[in-house]
Task: inverse folding
């Protein structure tokens, strides 16, 4: 396909900057970046869009993960296995990315988002502080199940991965929102890497566009991570509810045919 114009690149860069910020705080940057790529690159194939989106997100999660790691110091006994299985799950998901239609995911994702959003709203104390529900092997086992399932989803489609990681770590394992965001960014970095390990050898990445949105996503990720760390779990919780609400509106509209 032809290279996008400078105007299109600038608009994609702005979308990626915003997506990087949102993704670093609570996940959900794909709600912004992926639709922007679909509109800005009408001649690209679905796999090229997914692969280029992954490159941009990989850049953003790299810097936000490093920022969270330095400032929050999450427990490596959980996040390292979580990252490992998330990478494997994402690679497997990327293998089927071109074979599973988006329409197959959307109704399921919509129901999950509605349940997640309602659960967080109805439990104001959820995620205010870390109070782990399990320990030892049960804690690690559940974390690994979360990693491989959400990792597979990220490789196959992607938008909302960070938000799903955050909710799973808060709702299932009992982490506070800030610590959950730190672990979610590390796991999301691994899922982006897992998908790229497949997409890059296939030649699916549009490098010019990908590097531009990657640079902008990186800046947004840095700003988002610093903001989340500075403002704490309450800020992350409010941001989480807003992002999930936006997802419900966007995906719900697509399922009902309102945006077509």
Result:
């Amino acid at each position: 396909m032809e290279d996008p114009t400078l105007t299109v690149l600038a608009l994609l860069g702005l979308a990626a900057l915003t997506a990087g910020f949102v993704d670093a705080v609570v996940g959900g940057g794909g709600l912004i970046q992926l639709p922007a790529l679909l509109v800005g690159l009408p001649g690209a194939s679905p796999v090229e869009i997914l692969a280029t989106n992954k490159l941009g997100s990989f850049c953003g999660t790299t810097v936000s993960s490093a920022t969270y790691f330095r400032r929050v110091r999450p427990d490596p006994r959980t996040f390292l296995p979580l990252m490992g299985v998330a990478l494997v799950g994402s690679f497997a998901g990327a293998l089927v990315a071109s074979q599973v239609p988006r329409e197959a995911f959307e109704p399921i994702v919509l129901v999950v988002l509605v349940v997640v959003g309602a659960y967080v709203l109805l439990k104001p104390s959820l995620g205010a502080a870390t109070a782990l529900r399990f320990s030892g092997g049960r804690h690690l086992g559940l974390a690994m199940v979360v990693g491989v399932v959400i990792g597979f989803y990220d490789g196959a489609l992607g938008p909302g991965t960070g938000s799903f990681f955050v909710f799973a770590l808060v709702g299932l394992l009992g982490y506070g929102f800030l610590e959950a965001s730190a672990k979610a960014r590390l796991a999301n970095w691994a899922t982006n890497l897992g998908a790229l390990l497949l997409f890059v050898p296939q030649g699916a990445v549009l490098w010019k566009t990908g590097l531009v949105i990657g640079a902008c996503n990186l800046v947004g990720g840095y700003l988002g991570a610093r903001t989340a760390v500075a403002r704490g779990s309450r800020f992350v919780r409010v941001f989480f509810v807003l992002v999930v609400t936006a997802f419900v509106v966007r995906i719900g509209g697509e399922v009902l045919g309102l945006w077509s």
Remarks:
- DSSP finds nine helices and no strands in the chain.
- The mean pLDDT is 89.
- The two ends are 24 Å apart (CA to CA).
- Residues 1 and 44 are 6 Å apart (CA to CA).
